[in-house]
Design brief:
The chain is of the alpha/beta class. The chain is about 40% helix and about 15% strand.
Length: about 190
């Protein structure tokens, strides 16, 4: 074999090794350096401790064993709270053909004003005073996704500013659509 053929042969062998070794090395680096947020498909926070409607002082039977989009309103519903309520209502509407499987619920510490009621589809909502058990279990305003068996699955914390509300609504919608797609109940 001549020296030029030997160089071509070595170059071909090095290129072949590089094609197979470089992706493996990059994958190992990505895994060790945590470049990707792998294994997470939900947008909200999973509830780690068992939390049920019963523990919140609510009865599952009152909701006809439907999925719940449960919004716990703060004590004083200011303008940001109203915008969040409208965003949650719009998320509910965006469910489209899945709307009959979901019941929007608002747990209030004060009655909604007529202006607040006008901003949502009040006839579709179940509005209820917040039970004392809920006040003890949930210390801040949030949106909870509850399955038809009464288990609280996911929590979404409302954003501080109105400019983040569209992203907030899309996150809830994505989680709900995924849950409804794979669920055979409710």
């Amino acid at each position: 074999m001549s020296s030029s053929e030997l160089k071509k042969s070595r170059r071909s062998m090095l290129i072949l090794l590089a094609v197979f070794i470089i992706p493996v090395v990059l994958a190992k680096l990505a895994l060790n350096q945590e470049w990707f947020n792998y294994g997470v498909t939900n947008k909200g926070q999973l509830i780690e401790n068992e939390l049920t409607l019963e523990k919140l002082g609510l009865n599952v039977e009152d909701f006809d064993h439907q999925w719940l989009l449960l919004y716990t309103l703060p004590e004083n519903c200011n303008q940001q709270c109203e915008k969040t309520l409208v965003s949650v209502n719009n998320t509910y509407i965006a469910l489209g053909k899945e709307m009959p499987r979901v019941k929007p619920v608002a747990l209030t510490q004060q009655d909604l004003t007529p202006a607040q009621s006008d901003k949502i589809q009040i006839k579709k909502w179940h509005i209820q005073s917040m039970p004392a058990l809920t006040k003890n279990a949930i210390t801040q305003s949030q949106v909870l996704i509850v399955d038809p068996l009464g288990n609280v699955i996911l929590r979404h914390l409302p954003p501080e500013s109105a400019e983040h509300l569209p992203k907030f609504g899309k996150a809830i919608l994505a989680d709900f659509k995924k849950l409804l797609k794979y669920s055979r109940i409710g």
